[in-house]
Specification:
single chain, mainly alpha, two-stranded parallel ribbon, 50% helix
C-alpha cells in the first residue's frame, strides 16, 4: 500500500485469500498492516479487502474481452 500509494484499497485474492481469512478475523493481519510507524496514517485510510470469489479473475478478464 505504501510503495504504490494504493489509496483506493488493497485487495487480496487468489490462493492466499482463504489462507489468511482466520488471521484477518482475529486482527493479526490488520494489526501488521496498520503498524507502519510514522506512515501509519497513510494505511489507516486505505481499506484492506479479501476477494472471496474464486472466479474473480475470470470475470475481470471476460469483462475486458467484451469491451475490446
Amino acid at each position: 500500500a505504501l510503495l504504490l500509494t494504493a489509496t483506493g484499497g488493497v485487495y487480496v485474492g487468489g490462493g492466499i485469500a482463504p489462507k489468511i481469512c482466520q488471521k484477518l478475523a482475529d486482527g493479526t493481519t490488520v494489526a501488521a498492516y496498520l503498524n507502519k510507524g510514522r506512515l501509519s496514517y497513510m494505511v489507516e485510510k486505505t481499506p484492506l479487502r479479501v476477494i472471496r470469489d474464486d472466479h474473480a479473475a475470470l470475470l475481470g478478464a471476460a469483462s475486458i474481452a467484451v469491451n475490446l
